[in-house]
Design brief:
By secondary structure, the protein is an alpha+beta fold. Helices cover 35% and strands 30% of the residues. The longest helix is centred in the N-terminal third of the chain and has 37 residues. 14% of the residues are buried.
Length: 295
């Protein structure tokens, strides 16, 4: 048929497609607004625009994250401290497990404003910010099992970190405060593929005007004094491993595996000599390794 005959139908189809897309974006915006409101007492989330399609993840572009309230105070951040990401991907919940994923790509964490003990070693090593990708997977309780969260950081500078935590949530969840939270176990693995830890060690020793070994020994003593001031008594095996790690930085694994689940908001009730055994803390050095499932 002539094009003049098909023109009204083409216009109609285009109009329906535009209407459907607009409705879909509006529905996605409502969903995003709901969880942004839930997080508002803890972190302010702003974005420029979003993109969503049926049954797929929601993508927010040019995102700003500003910790507030107890989160800001707990992290020791100044008022107005902000992190930025090129894109935040809010995944759909898995139908079988209920697992939800959040991915932050092009994430920039400014060092200016972070606690001095964390920011200063990195600044001395030539870094002004931490850049990379952050992936969070949260699996809710199933059949009596605890929450299982996995947090993976893939840094542009070659340093990766993967934290897996299993816990039973407290009444304030998802505020992520320690109130009522029961720890089942946690594992932190840090992999250094490009000698970032070596750079930090060298810069710190240079700033202290000491040889590396003397700086490492002084650092261990300073950490032990801080632990004693907080009534913590690290076991000798942990101190020895820490000394080795400071003298020759390398990838490491830190595990916390209590013999029985521990209420984190009640740890202070225990005697200091019992806490390490109570939490089942283990610290081990490992050769450099890049986990294939790190994202």
């Amino acid at each position: 048929p002539p094009r003049s005959t098909l023109f009204p139908y083409t216009t109609l189809f285009r109009s329906l497609a535009l209407t459907w897309t607009a409705w879909l974006q509006h529905r996605a915006a409502q969903e995003v607004a709901t969880w942004i409101t839930t997080l508002r007492p803890h972190v302010l989330v702003r974005y420029e625009h979003l993109r969503a399609w049926p049954g797929q993840a929601i993508h927010l572009h040019h995102v700003t994250l500003e910790p507030v309230g107890s989160w800001r105070e707990g992290l020791g951040l100044p008022v107005g401290y902000r992190m930025r990401a090129a894109q935040l991907t809010w995944g759909r919940a898995d139908a079988a497990t209920g697992e939800r994923t959040v991915q932050l790509d092009g994430l920039t964490v400014p060092l200016e404003g972070l606690p001095r003990q964390l920011a200063l070693p990195l600044q001395r090593s030539g870094f002004e910010s931490l850049t990379g990708a952050l992936h969070l997977a949260a699996q809710p309780p199933l059949n009596g099992l605890p929450w299982h969260w996995t947090l993976a950081w893939q840094g542009d500078m070659g340093l990766t970190a993967r934290l897996g935590v299993r816990f039973k949530a407290g009444p304030a969840f998802p505020a992520l405060t320690l109130q009522g939270m029961t720890l089942v176990d946690a594992t932190l693995r840090v992999d250094d593929a490009q000698g970032v830890l070596d750079r930090i060690q060298y810069s710190a020793a240079l700033a202290s005007r000491r040889p590396v070994k003397a700086w490492a020994d002084a650092t261990v003593q300073r950490l032990l004094r801080a632990a004693a001031a907080a009534d913590w008594m690290p076991p000798p095996s942990l101190v020895t491993t820490l000394e080795r790690g400071l003298r020759a930085p390398q990838s490491f694994v830190l595990k916390v595996a209590p013999p029985t689940p521990v209420r984190l908001d009640q740890v202070h009730l225990y005697a200091s000599e019992d806490r390490w055994a109570l939490l089942g803390v283990e610290f081990a050095l490992s050769p450099p390794h890049i986990a294939s499932d790190s994202r």
